[in-house]
C-alpha cells in the first residue's frame, strides 16, 4: 500500500493552497482539468452551524455541465466539513478557473457513482488504495449547475 504523507504535511499543503488563492486569486490556485489530470476549484458552502460562508479548494473533473469531486478529508477518517455543510445546505457556489457558477450538490449513487468513481480511478491510480483507509465509503459529489 502506498504511503500517504503525514497528516501535518497534508494540512500544511491545504494552508499553502488557500494562501496562494488569497494572495494571487484564481490565477495561481485554480486550474481546469486535463484529460489525464484533475483540476482545482473553490467551493463555497454555508456552514451548517454558523450559517456563514465557508470556502475550500478541491480537485475536480467535469461531467457534462456538472463538476465532480470526492468527499475525502486527505483520506482521513472524518467526513470533510464542506461535505457536511453541503448536505445541510445543498445550494453553493463554485469558482472555476473561468469564473463562478451557482451549483446544487448531491451524492452520486448507483450506476452514476460507479461510472464517476471509474473516471476518478483513471486520474488517480491509487484511488482504491487510499479510499480503503477510510472507515466509510467516500462520497462522489456531483455539483449540478443551477440558475441563480
UniProtKB/TrEMBL annotation:
It comes from the Bacteria. InterPro entries: F420H2_quin_Rdtase (IPR004378), Split_barrel_FMN-bd (IPR012349). Transmembrane segments: none annotated. It catalyses: oxidized coenzyme F420-(gamma-L-Glu)(n) + a quinol + H(+) = reduced coenzyme F420-(gamma-L-Glu)(n) + a quinone. Pfam families: F420H2_quin_red. Belongs to the F420H(2)-dependent quinone reductase family. PANTHER family: F420H(2)-DEPENDENT QUINONE REDUCTASE RV1261C. This is Nitroreductase.
Amino acid at each position: 500500500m502506498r504511503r500517504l504523507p503525514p497528516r501535518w504535511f497534508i494540512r500544511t499543503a491545504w494552508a499553502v493552497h488557500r494562501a496562494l488563492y488569497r494572495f494571487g486569486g484564481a490565477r495561481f490556485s485554480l486550474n481546469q482539468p486535463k484529460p489525464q489530470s484533475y483540476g482545482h476549484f473553490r467551493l463555497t458552502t454555508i456552514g451548517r452551524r454558523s450559517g456563514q460562508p465557508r470556502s475550500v479548494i478541491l480537485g475536480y473533473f467535469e461531467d457534462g455541465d456538472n463538476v465532480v469531486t470526492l468527499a475525502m478529508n486527505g483520506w482521513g477518517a472524518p467526513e470533510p466539513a464542506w461535505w457536511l455543510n453541503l448536505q445541510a445546505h445543498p445550494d453553493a457556489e463554485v469558482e472555476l478557473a473561468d469564473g463562478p457558477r451557482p451549483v446544487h450538490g448531491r451524492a452520486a449513487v448507483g450506476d452514476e457513482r460507479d461510472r464517476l468513481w471509474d473516471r476518478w480511478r483513471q486520474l488517480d491510480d491509487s484511488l482504491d488504495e487510499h479510499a480503503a483507509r477510510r472507515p466509510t465509503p467516500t462520497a462522489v459529489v456531483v455539483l449540478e449547475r443551477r440558475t441563480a
